[in-house]
């Protein structure tokens, strides 16, 4: 879908920081953009987010988790993404279906096909035009960050989970290279931001 761009990467790659800087830049330039995130992004979806990420919910069934992510996504699309796209705005979404593919499908081991199918039901035609992947291995990310945030249920899982997630992203990119802009996120925040903007300019999203 034209003007719908998603941003993905492993935990701790600096995705939130890079997205915030991009938002500031786009606003400065006067672009008609909406920045949003998943899970969450709208009132009801943020309520679902709290249930999913609550460290007290460690007994949550993996399939329940996958459905909650998809459920939050349906609501977020309805409340934020679809109205903005209808108004001709460019929507940047911090995480979307590819997070479910790799975290639930591969990391949790539910199977990629099943999670792709579930999300096809959830999103219908609302797939991103392309996806920015901030490329940093979990080893590098966790070293830079100084460890995981154990109060976050997704970050508290063991390391092999995050390695599977990273390999999963790489496999998705290999399968559909045109659908991704891979950004080397191992340099300074400035360097990464520059590479990100260059990629968006190449795609004609920004000048
Ligand atoms: P968040 O604190 O937003 O992490 P980040 O800043 O790295 O994006 O938490 C989102 C967590 O939810 C993150 O660990 C990835 C996970 N997640 C899934 O497992 N499946 C999904 O479909 C989505 C959207 C996120």
What order do the helices and strands come in, and which of them pair?
Layout: E1 4-8, H1 15-28, E2 33-37, H2 43-53, H3 62-86, E3 90-94, H4 97-107, H5 112-123, E4 130-135, H6 138-145, H7 159-175, E5 180-184, H8 189-202
Parallel strand pairs: 1-3, 1-4, 2-3, 4-5
Helix pairs in contact: 1-8, 2-3, 3-4, 3-5, 4-5, 4-7
Residues 11, 15-16, 38-39, 53, 69, 94-95, 99-100, 103-104, 152, 154-155 line the site of thymidine-5'-diphosphate (TYD).
Written account of the structure:
The two termini are about 20 Å apart. By secondary structure, the chain is of the alpha/beta class. It is globular, with a radius of gyration of 16 Å. The protein is about 55% helix and about 15% strand. The mean pLDDT is about 95. About 40% of the residues are buried. The structure holds thymidine-5'-diphosphate. Thymidine-5'-diphosphate (TYD) binds near residues 38, 69, 103 and 104.
How many H/I helices? 8
Order of helices and strands: EHEHHEHHEHHEH
Query: Which segments are poorly predicted (pLDDT under 50) over 5 or more consecutive residues?
Result: none
The strands making up the biggest β-sheet line up spatially as 2-3-1-4-5
Counting DSSP E segments of at least 2 residues, the number of strands comes to 5
Distance between the termini: 20 Å
Strand content: 5-15%
Mean pLDDT: 95
Shape: globular
Small molecules held by this entry? thymidine-5'-diphosphate
How is the main sheet built? 5 strands, parallel
* Radius of gyration from CA coordinates: 16 Å
What structural class do the secondary elements suggest? alpha/beta
Helix content: 40-55%
């Amino acid at each position: 879908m034209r003007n719908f761009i998603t941003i993905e990467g492993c935990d701790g790659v600096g995705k939130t920081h890079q997205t915030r800087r991009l938002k500031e830049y786009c606003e400065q330039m006067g672009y008609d953009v909406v920045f949003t995130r998943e899970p969450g992004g709208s009132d009801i979806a943020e309520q679902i987010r709290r249930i999913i990420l609550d460290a007290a919910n460690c007994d949550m069934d993996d399939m329940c988790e996958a459905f909650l992510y998809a459920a939050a996504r349906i609501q977020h699309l309805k409340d934020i993404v679809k109205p903005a796209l209808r108004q001709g705005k460019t929507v940047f979404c911090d995480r979307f279906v590819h997070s479910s593919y790799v975290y639930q499908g591969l990391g949790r081991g539910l199977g990629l096909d099943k999670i792709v199918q579930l999300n096809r039901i959830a999103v219908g035609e609302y797939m991103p035009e392309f996806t920015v992947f901030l490329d940093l291995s979990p080893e590098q990310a966790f070293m830079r960050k100084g460890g995981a945030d154990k109060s976050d249920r997704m970050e508290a899982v063991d390391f092999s989970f995050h390695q599977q997630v990273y390999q999963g992203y790489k496999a998705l990119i290999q399968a559909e290279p045109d659908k991704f802009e891979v950004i080397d996120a191992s340099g300074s925040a400035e360097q990464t931001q520059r590479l990100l903007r260059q990629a968006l300019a190449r795609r004609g999203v920004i000048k």
